[in-house]
Each structure stands twice: as structure tokens, then as C-alpha cells.
Design a protein that fits this description.
Order of helices and strands: HEHEHEHEHEHEHEHEEEEEEEHHHE
CATH class of the largest domain: Alpha Beta
Largest sheet: 7 strands, mixed
Strand order of the largest sheet: 12-11-7-10-9-8-15
CATH superfamily of the largest domain: Dihydrodipicolinate Reductase, domain 2
Bound molecules: (2R,3S,4s,5R,6S)-2,3,4,5,6-pentahydroxycyclohexanone
Strand content: 15-25%
Structural class: alpha/beta
Distance between the termini: 30 Å
């Protein structure tokens, strides 16, 4: 196919998992990304999948994800299946030589994520992007720009606050770290441009009888270059959803303000609407994420969080879990970044 034709043809995408997150990705790819076409879906819930297929016009539907990955009409795969399937499905995409956007976490353990990095390195070029979508949130990007401009001077501290609205009760420490805090751990690395080398995790369980659960989790950490950080992950705030970061430097600080809504003054009250969940709070980021991914597929220039980022965030996540279990601080051994993952 000539380059001209290649650039004109829409990228044909197969989406695995058509629940809340998968459904949103399908909608965004269909309505917001002219260069993409969702041609195939896979889900064990056939009724839900058919509903989504009817809405987006996907012509191939499978209850077996491997069949979608292998299908010749699928150029690239988006994985939005439950977390425990991410590693094996991503690996299957690499084996099939197909680019993949995998929702976070890339895997449930660092060892699983490492195997993906090794498979991709053996393949010889980047195929994997990980859905650590805060890199596409305009508020986070403004903080990143300030950080990179040098305006903050030497940065001394990172602070992340991650408030979940509730109805997620009784999540275990492992689940909170790998499913929720993994976003914050990635932000802490990406925004600071530095690696976390030591962590200490404490948590408040839902009840004393279930010490393995975390209603609120606090991670304190140290960076390689001497800065410090803290992440507070509240799993059941009971009022709405918020994510914010703050960087404190020697000559200034920068922080996001998660609330986009208007400030209302009415009847002696000042109020502001708070988003309900991540689909609302990161609505724009999710659109920008799939747009950037499809653009990278067209240009052949990989972008966004890589398998390496997915792997290193899991190395830190493993240490956070070990720290919560033992009550001790844990060191994180960060390996040297493989050449193909170095960011410009
Ligand atoms: C969910 O899976 C997400 O990815 C959200 O961004 C996060 O805020 C939430 O805690 C997770 O459960």
C-alpha cells in the first residue's frame, strides 16, 4: 500500500471489553477520532457487546478475545477487559505483532509487566501504550509544562490527592494500589521526571476485622534525586470524585484545580459542582488519549505511557503493597531504562 493510501485509510480497531471504560473508548473512537474505525468487539457478555456493536457499527464480534486479536481486519487493539486479563492479552497482541492500547494496570505484578517489556524488546519496536491517561489531562499538562520550564526551580516535593466517590467498598490494599494508586504513582514519576526509590505505605481498613482492605491509603516516598512525595488515596469519600497534584519547588509551586465547573453564588451560598467519577473528571483526557494513540498508529511514532512506564509503576506498586503488609519502608530497585523506551 502506498503511503498516501496508508494515511487515508482509517485505522481499524478492535476493542476487548465493552463495559464502562471499554464503552467510553468505543464512543470516543467512533465520535471523536475521524481517523479511527471500531471494526471489532470482544466481550464474554454477548448481549452488552451486541448493544455496543449496534451503536458503533462494529461488524465483527467475538466472545473469545484471541479471535479478535488474530482477525485480519483488526489493525490495532484496545484492551479494556478486567485488570487480571491485561498482561496475557497485551502479550497476545505483541505475539500477533499488533499495536495495543492497554488500560492500566499493564499487569498485576512487576514480574508480569517485566515479561511484557521483554517480549516487546524482542519484537524490536514499541507496540504498547498504557492507559495512564492523566498524561492527557489539560490541568496535569499545565503543571508539567511549568515543571519542565524550570520556573519552579529545583522541585522538592510531589503531592497527589485521589478521592473516589464511593460505592467501591471493601477493596483490598492490593486492588487499591494496582487499580487506583497506580495512576498517582505514574503521575509522581512523569511530572517530576524522576524515579521513586523508597516507599512507605499505611492505610485505614474498612473495619478492624478486615485489615487487608483499604478505605484510605497513604503512600510516602523518596525520589532518586532527593525530593520527597506523598499520595493520599481515599476510596470512599462519599461526596464525589477529585484528583489533584501539587509540585513544590524552591522558587514556586504549581497545582491542578480539578473542578472545572462554575462557581455559583446564590442565596447566601457559594458552591461548585463536583464530578461524580473518573469518566466525568477525565472526559477530555480520554478523548485526547485515543486521538494521540490513533495518530501515533498513523505516523508510526509511538507516544504516551509505554510498557516501560507500566512496568516501573508496577515495581513501585509491588513495593507499596509489601510495605503495607510488613509495616516497613521498602526500597525500589529501578533497572536502567531500555534504549527504545527513553523519552526525548
Ligand atoms: C478506576 O479504575 C480508574 O482508573 C480511575 O481513574 C481511578 O480513579 C479509580 O480509582 C479506579 O478504580
Amino acid at each position: 500500500m502506498s503511503n498516501q493510501h496508508a494515511s487515508q485509510r482509517r485505522v481499524r480497531i478492535g476493542v476487548i471489553g465493552t463495559g464502562g471504560m471499554g464503552g467510553r473508548h468505543v464512543r470516543n473512537l467512533t465520535n471523536e477520532v475521524a481517523a479511527a474505525q471500531v471494526v471489532a468487539l470482544s466481550d464474554v457478555d454477548a448481549a452488552r457487546m451486541q448493544e455496543v456493536a449496534a451503536a458503533c457499527g462494529a461488524v465483527h464480534t467475538f466472545t473469545d478475545a484471541q479471535a479478535l486479536i488474530n482477525h485480519p481486519a483488526v489493525d490495532a487493539v484496545l484492551i479494556a477487559a478486567p485488570d487480571r486479563f491485561h498482561a496475557a492479552l497485551t502479550r497476545a497482541c505483541i505475539d500477533a505483532g499488533k499495536p495495543v492500547l492497554c488500560e492500566k494496570p499493564l499487569a498485576l505484578t512487576a514480574a508480569e509487566a517485566r515479561a511484557i517489556v521483554e517480549a516487546e524488546v524482542a519484537f524490536g519496536r514499541r507496540l504498547v501504550q498504557v492507559g495512564l491517561m492523566r498524561e492527557y489531562d489539560p490541568a496535569h499538562l499545565r503543571v508539567k509544562q511549568l515543571m519542565d520550564s524550570g520556573a519552579l526551580g529545583k522541585v522538592l516535593a510531589f503531592r497527589g490527592v485521589h478521592i473516589n466517590g464511593g460505592a467501591l467498598s471493601w477493596r483490598t490494599v492490593e486492588d487499591v494500589v494496582t487499580n487506583s494508586a497506580v495512576h498517582d504513582l505514574h503521575s509522581a514519576r512523569w511530572l517530576m521526571g524522576d524515579e521513586i526509590v523508597r516507599v512507605y505505605t499505611t492505610h485505614v481498613p474498612y473495619s478492624p476485622e478486615r485489615p487487608d482492605t483499604a478505605r484510605l491509603l497513604l503512600i510516602q516516598f523518596a525520589y532518586r534525586n532527593g525530593a520527597v512525595g506523598q499520595i493520599e488515596c481515599n476510596m470512599e469519600a462519599g461526596y464525589g470524585y477529585e484528583v489533584d497534584v501539587k509540585l513544590t519547588g524552591e522558587t514556586g509551586s504549581a497545582e491542578t484545580n480539578s473542578l472545572q465547573s462554575a462557581v455559583v453564588r446564590h442565596q447566601n451560598q457559594r458552591s461548585q459542582w463536583i464530578e461524580q467519577d473518573w469518566l466525568q473528571r477525565f472526559e477530555t483526557a480520554y478523548v485526547h488519549e485515543v486521538r494521540a494513540w490513533v495518530h501515533s498508529l498513523q505516523t508510526g511514532v509511538p507516544t504516551g505511557p509505554s510498557a516501560w512506564d507500566g512496568y516501573v509503576s508496577m515495581l513501585v506498586a509491588d513495593a507499596c503493597i509489601a510495605s503495607a503488609r510488613t509495616g516497613q519502608p521498602m526500597d525500589v530497585e529501578i533497572p536502567r531504562t531500555a534504549e527504545m523506551y527513553k523519552r526525548a
